[in-house]
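User: Fold this, then the next.

Assistant: Folding the first:
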Amino acid sequence: MDHGTPPLRSPDIESLETARRVLRLEASALEALAAGLDHRFEEAVRLLATTTGRVVVSGMGKSGHVGRKIAATFASTGTPAQFVHPGEASHGDLGMIIRGDAVLALSNSGETAELGDLVAHARRFGIPLIAIVGRPASTLARHADVALVLPAAQEACPLGLAPTTSTTMQLALGDALAVALLERRGFGPEDFRVFHPGGKLGARLSRVADLMHGPEELPLATPETPMADALVAMTARRFGCLGITDEAGHLIGIITDGDLRRALQPGGALLTRLAGEVMTRQPRSIPADALAAEALRLMNEGGITTLFVVDAERRPAGILHIHDLLRAGVA
C-alpha cells in the first residue's frame, strides 16, 4: 500500500473553497474601499448633483460593462444618465456629450487608450470629468476634476489577470454614488415608481387609491341597522364584510364572516340583534395615498382579506380586497 499518496479531494469541496476565497477577497477589498473614501467622494457627488444635463458614463471592456450598469442605476434613481462607448465616441458619439453634462470614466489602469478622445473632448469644452481609477498617477486620474482611486487589491482570478476584485469595487462605488445622489435629491417611493412602472416592483409601489373600489361600492350600515338588513347589505357587495359608520359618517366598526360565526353560537340569536352589537370596533383601515405594499402588510399581520380606505376623519372613501392586490401583482 502506498501511504504517501494523498487522498483524492472532491471537486465540489474544491469549488466551495474557491468560491469562499473569491468572496472573502472581494469583501476585504470593499472594506478597504469604504475605509478610504474621503472628501473626493463628496466632491464627486456635488458635481453630479449640480449637473444640469446627463451623466455620461464610459469605460472599455469589463469597465464598460460595469459602466452600463452604473448608468442604468443612475437613470432609475433620479439621475439622468447614459452610457457612451469610448470607441464609438471617437467616431461621432462625442456629439452626445455637451456642455451641462458630466462624464464618469472607468478604467482600472487609467491608461485606456480608447478613452483618450473622450477625455480630450471633456477638457476642451469644460465638461466635468470624474474618474473611477486604480492608479492615482495615471493619465486619466491626472486629467480628471475628481479622481476616485480604488485601493490596491488582489484580483480574485488566480492568474491575477481577469478583472474581478477591481470591477466589483467599481460597481460598488457606482452604487454608492447613485444612492448618495438619491438621498441628496430626496428621491422617494413615488419617484421610484415613475421609473419602474412594470413588473412586481411597480405593482408594490402602486398606491391604494389606484386599486381600491370607490365610494359607490362601499358596503355600509349604521349601528342601529337590524342584522337581517345588515346581512342583505353585506352579501350584496360580495366583499365579505360590512362597514359600520356613526351619524357623522366615521368608520367605527366592521362586521366580517368571523363576526357572523361568533354571533351564530348557541344563544346568539343573530337576526334579532343590531349591527352595532355584532360588529368589531376600531377595525384596521388605510389611507388612499398609502402604498399597496403597506396594505398587503396590514392584511398579512391581521389575517384579514379586506381593508376600508378612509380619509383623515376616518370616513370611508373606498375598500380594498386581497383579490385586488393579487390581480395587480402586489401579493
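Now the next one, as you asked:
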Amino acid sequence: MLAFAIRRLIQAVGVMLVVALISFLLFRFVGDPVNQLVGVDTTPEQRAQLRQDLGLNDPVYVQFGRFVGKAARFDFGISYQIKQPVADLIASRLPATLELSLVSAVFALLVGLPMGVYTGLYPQTLLSRLFLALSLTGISLPTFLIGILLIFIFSVNLGWLPSFGRGEVVTIGGFWTTGLLTRSGLSSLILPAITLGLFQMTLIMRLVRGEMLEVLRTDYIKFARARGLSSRAVNFGHALKNTLVPVITITGLQIGSIIAFSIITETVFQWPGMGLLFLQAVQNVDIPIMAAYLLLIAFLFTIINFIVDLLYVAVDPRIRIGGAGA
C-alpha cells in the first residue's frame, strides 16, 4: 500500500507541473500584463521599468521556476482588475464553493445510491420505472435550465426558497464562512445544491443499477443464495459490496467535476463562489485569477483522485496485488 501511495504521489506531482506549465503559458501568451496594470498615460520608460520589476525580461525557464515557487506558496500575484491579492480573493470565495459542492455531492450520493440499489433489485416495478424516467430527465436537461425551472417553481410561483445569493453566513475560526448554521443560509443552499447535484445523482443511480444487475447474475451470488443466506445478506453483504469500486471511482471524479463545473450554477443563482469569480475574470481577461483557478482545480482533482485510488485499493485488494505483480 505504501509503495502504491508513493507511486501515485509522484504521478500527482507530474500532473501538477504540467498544469502549472499551462497556467504559466496564460501569463506569457494571453494578453500583456503590463497593459493590464498601467493606464494610457504611462510613458514607455515606466512600462519598461514595470516589465523589469515583474521579471518579464528574464529567460522563460527562470520565469517558470519563479511561477512554480510562488504557486507552491499560494502566491498568485495581484488581480489586474480588482487590484487585490489573488490568494485573498480565492480564500474569500473558496468556502462558498466547497460548501455548495459538498452538499451537492452528499445529496447525489445519499439519493442516487438507494435509488440505484432499488432499481437494480426490483427493475420491473412502477417505482423503478419512475426513477429511470427521472434519471433521463436529470441527464438530458442542461444545468442552467434546471436551475431556472427550480427558481420559477419554488421561488417565483411558490415563494418558498430564495432565488439568489448565499443568505446569512457566520464565520468560524476567523476565516471560514458557512451558511449551514443559519436558516437563511440553509434555505439559500437548497436550490443550487439540487441543481448542481442532480446530474451526478442520476449518473450514480444508473451506474449502481447497472452494476447491481450484472453482479446479481454472477455464479457466486447464486451460490450464496443456494447456501441459504438471507436476501439482505446477499444483496447488501455480497452484491452491493462488489459494486463499490466503480461507484467510488465515479463518485470521486464527480466531486472534482462538481467543484470545477459549478460555474454555471453559481452564475444562475449568483452564488458568491470561485466559479462566479472565474467567470468574471474571463470576461475581464484577469489572467492571475484564471491561472490560480486552473491550478487550484487541478490540485483538488489530484487530491481527490489520490484518495479514490487508496479507497478502491482498500475495497478491492486484487488491485493492490495486480499492481505489485506488475
